[in-house]
Amino acid sequence: MSLDQFQRALTDLTASPALCRAVRREPALLSQLYALSPLEQDRLADIAASNGMEANCMIYRANRLAPVALNCPDLCAALGDDLNRLISAYWYAEPTTNVHFLVETERFCQFLEERDDLSPQARKALSREHRKVRDRLAATAAMADRDAFAVARVMPPA
Amino acid sequence: MALAKPSVGLLYNPAVPAVLDAAGTLVDHIEVIPDRLWYDFGTGAEHRFSHAHTAIAELGRFAGRHAMIGHGIGLSLPSAMPIDEDLLAEVAASHRHFGYRWYSEHLSMFLAPGGSVPNAQAGMGLPVVHDAELLEIVGRKVELLQATLGVPIALENGTIFSAVPNPEMSEPEFMNRLHERTGCKMLLDLHNLYANMRNLNWSPAEYLGALDPEIVIEVHVAGGDPLRGHYTDSHSRRSPAVIWDWLEEWGPRFPNLAAITFEYHESYHKRIGLAGVVAELEKMHAAAEAISGAPQPTPAFA
Ligand SMILES: [Fe+2]
Fold it and tell me: What's one Pfam family the UniProt record gives for this protein (chain B) (predicted)?
């Protein structure tokens, strides 16, 4: 079964405008990277070349940026034009999006902490908002053993 | 025979309690995204799901007065990978807690197989290949959900920007065949259809005409935004006018249509406004009345 490979490839293309460009130039690249049937390879090459792929890539980036923008607005403002470069570098290092907004944000903050190319304003905002995110994350972790559905869980099905 | 009046409701978000407090009589049902009721620390964590106790308690405040419908985004039935059983168990616990009339997921890929963790997110709902292989994968998972939850299961049509070329079957045919095989219903999102019409030149009449009318259990209405030549399903506005025309024309043809739900994102509550949400609810009631053929009541909130 190669459907899983098809889905993996489509996900990778959506996450990487650079991979889309490479596949547009050289569709055979797909068969080097993934185990695909000829039909799947043709379909992916068409999708990579389609107009809509630009929207997929934009929405992927907007969705992945959302937790950081929501939890670290001052950091994003202080990074300014550097945000695009730094968050792209982070996504390259961490290709898997974490579904937990605070975990995703904390990982980005940690990634920035280890860099030495931040402006003093960005470093200050990072320090303040990273602490807030860590505290909120710790609070959700501390609540993890409190089960809001405890009573429902032991009830017989309706 | 006249149809029963479909129930009218809202997709729950943190701004909805204010609407319910101001105009709760216009809201028959609340649609809950269970995935927003917890923080997911991922497979392998000692306590994987940390509950959002405030949100759950807030919802509980309304659960006695409004019917509840479950609408998940995390199980990603079309992904070519085993279902996330722990997540399904958590969805089932939320169902036992709130008592969903039915539960829906999406006919889009949200989870990517082959990621570094089992619940690796695709980052958005991606298009799927409508073929026999996918029918088998989705069909088996729908049967598992039916057995686990004990209520009807529905799948929603998504917004897509790049259609999969040369499909074995169309999306309506896929939905019809899934229904034949499993009894799975359809959550028909008219705004997603509108977006696909704008982005991919789909014909709504052809799409709606190809659906087995029996399968539609619920309709979603919503609004979106243009984005650099594309049109997105951003849930950021009131519904476009043409969607109400489609609902008026096609709603009476769906004999099992039981609910109409307006979806919007809380970050756009200010833009849409309380009056805007109420206006959507009133339009949904008018459409539901027209579908049932009953006379229109005086609006409860003006
Ligand atoms: Fe929807």
Answer: MbnB_TglH_ChrH
